[in-house]
Design goal:
The protein has 553 residues and is mainly beta. Among the domains are: 1-111, Ribonuclease Inhibitor (Leucine-rich repeat, LRR (right-handed beta-alpha superhelix), Alpha-Beta Horseshoe), CATH 3.80.10; 418-553, Leucine-rich repeat, LRR (right-handed beta-alpha superhelix) (Alpha-Beta Horseshoe). 4% of the residues lie in helices and 13% in strands. The chain has helices at 18-31, 116-122, and strands at residues 6-7, 35-37, 58-60, 81-83, 104-106, 130-132, 153-155, 176-178, 199-201, 222-224, 245-247, 268-270, 291-293, 313-315, 320-322, 328-330, 351-353, 374-376, 397-399, 421-423, 444-446, 467-469, 490-492, 513-515, 541-542. The strands form two sheets. The chain has a 23-stranded parallel sheet, with no helix packed on it.
Length: 553
């Protein structure tokens, strides 16, 4: 018997032929396979021969073109997991109730409209505890859903459901309920009867308030109410003391209540895209926080209480040992004027995003963020990069685009680790420094929209570079040594003063996107390799004096 997942993969764009499918089934039956994946194979019909797979425990037929489930499926009596998502199924046949051992059924992304008959069939499967009917065409939740006595996970997201019926609260064993991406306006008070509910997702609906009684779902660990029309967080939220994750982003919330300090187990908080003007002192008591997202609000300053989120903890629940709790802080798109000195206390912060604010100065305290790997200060009013930034030796992503920077300090080359990207676009830089060559592992480099006149030879030493953007500068020619960038996939030199394209471009065999629009180049014929190679595709090449750059950011 084969215990591993037998994954089938055809070599043709049209998927498996019927004969190939029968051969696979026959071989799987002979081997006694218990896990089989036939996903993404263009299958339109499940053949009767599937009944031969009597040892099968897991079967995936997702992302095909199946329109109906045949009676022969009932012969797979050992089946525990069945994935039929992303097909064209309209109804569930009575035969499926014979799959007595079925625990997990995925019918997401089909064309099911009425689940009442479907439920009458599925409730006969005693062990079924997970049902996914997301992204179908379901208009309402029928009353007979109360008969799902053993169901623990129910996903009805991305349908056309407008109300949550009180009958759903009789599924007493329910632990996870996903009703996101519907048109629900109100959370009924009967929801308090789901006493074992741990995960509730009502994001992307039309809910206008968080009702007081929601706080009686004492077992909740994950609550998602993002993308609604909520204006206020009630004080009762503090009673949900087991919450790990809370997402209230994209609402109309103006303040964070003091009762937040009772959510001491919270490790991820998302309040981005609201109308919050200040971060309250109570946030300091959330000592388990690892991720805070407060971008796109109206915050003007970073309070000192943020600096207190540095307590050493062991998180057994998520198998994570963090030197200090807070490791991601996003305050982008606010109205922050300065980075306070006490920010240096967050010395295990890994990702800091302060883009799109009004910051003028990078303070010395930034050097104390020793663990920082990503720093985004784009779209501020910064004029210089201080030497202290060179102490951030683990930094692998730095974005200082859209500022007023004129030069880059050489000490920046102290950065070690895997280099992913440097973005200095939209500044006032006149030349690319020669010490850029020390970033030998760099993948992305962006100096677009500056005042650069030439490409220095030092850039040829960035042998692992995949994206190079020098658009909107004053570059006159493309040097021959550009051919040494053998891993280059994207090259943007749009809107410069380049008059000719050197033949060395042909040697960039990995190049997929080439943008030379907005240059005074005449008619050009390049001897590029044929289209089946890894050279630029015609749709990705923009040559000559077109008005705007395309294809490469």
């Amino acid at each position: 018997m084969t215990n591993g997942v037998k994954k089938v993969s055809s070599n043709t764009k049209n998927g498996l032929t019927h004969a190939d499918l029968l051969n696979i089934i026959a071989k799987a039956a002979e081997e006694g396979t218990n896990r089989l994946s036939l996903s993404k194979e263009g299958i339109t019909e499940i053949p009767n021969e599937i009944a031969q797979l009597t040892t099968l425990e897991e079967l995936s037929l997702s992302e095909n073109k199946i329109t109906e489930i045949p009676d022969c499926i009932a012969q797979l009596t050992r089946l525990e997991t069945l994935n039929l998502s992303n097909n064209q199924i309209r109804e569930i046949p009575d035969c499926i109730r014979k799959l007595k051992k079925l625990r997990w059924l995925n019918l997401a992304n089909n064309q099911i409209t009425d689940i009442s008959a479907c439920i009458d069939i599925l409730i006969r499967i005693r062990w079924l505890n997970s049902l996914n009917l997301a992204n179908n065409q379901i208009m309402k939740i029928p009353k007979n859903i109360v008969n799902f006595a053993h169901l623990k996970w129910l996903d009805l997201s991305a349908n056309n459901i407008k109300t949550i019926p009180s009958c759903i609260t009789n599924i007493h064993k329910l632990e996870k309920l996903d009703l996101s991406k519907n048109a629900i306006k109100r959370i009924p008070n009967s929801i308090i009867h789901l006493t074992k509910l741990e995960d509730l997702n009502l994001a992307n609906n039309q809910t206008t308030e968080i009702p007081e009684y929601l706080a009686r779902l004492y077992e909740l660990t994950n609550l998602n109410l993002a993308n609604n029309q909520i204006r206020e967080i009630p004080r009762c939220i503090g009673k949900l003391t087991k919450l790990w994750q809370l997402n209230l982003s994209n609402n109309q919330i103006t303040e964070i209540p003091e009762d937040f300090d009772k959510l001491t187990k919270l490790w991820q908080l998302n309040l981005s895209n609201n109308q919050i003007t200040e971060i309250p002192e109570c946030i300091a008591k959330l000592t388990n926080l690892q991720w805070i997202y407060l971008s796109h609000n109206q915050i003007t300053e970073i309070p000192e209480c943020i600096a207190q989120l540095t307590q050493l903890r062991w998180h057994r629940e998520i198998h994570y040992y963090g030197s200090y709790v807070l490791n991601q802080l996003d305050l982008s798109n606010n109205q922050i004027i300065k980075i306070p000195e006490y920010m240096g206390k967050l010395n295990c912060l890994k990702k800091l995003n302060l883009a799109n604010n009004q910051i003028r100065h990078i303070p010395e305290c930034i050097a104390q963020l020793h663990e920082l790997t990503e720093l985004n200060l784009a779209n501020n009013q910064i004029r210089e990069i201080p030497e202290c930034i060179t102490e951030l030796i683990y930094l692998n992503w730095l974005d200082l685009s859209n500022n007023y920077i004129r030069e880059i300090p050489e000490g920046i080359t102290k950065f070690i680790g895997e280099k992913r990207g440097l973005n200095f676009s939209n500044n006032q830089i006149q030349e690319i420094p020669t010490f850029i060559a020390k970033f030998t592992q760099l993948n992305e480099l962006n100096f677009s929209s500056n005042q650069i006149k030439e490409i220095p030879e030092s850039i040829s030493q960035l042998i692992y570079l995949r994206k190079l953007n020098l658009a909107n500068n004053h570059v006159i020619n493309i040097p021959k040594f550009i051919s040494k960038l053998t891993y280059l996939e994207s090259l943007n030199l749009a809107n410069n003063q380049i008059k000719e394209i050197p033949e060395c471009i042909i040697q960039l065999t990995e190049l997929k996107e080439l943008n030379l629009s907005g240059n005074p180049i005449g008619d050009v014929v390049l001897g590029l390799p044929h289209r089946n190679s890894k050279s630029p595709r015609p749709g990705d090449m923009v040559l000559g004096s077109q008005s705007s750059p395309q294809g490469i950011e």
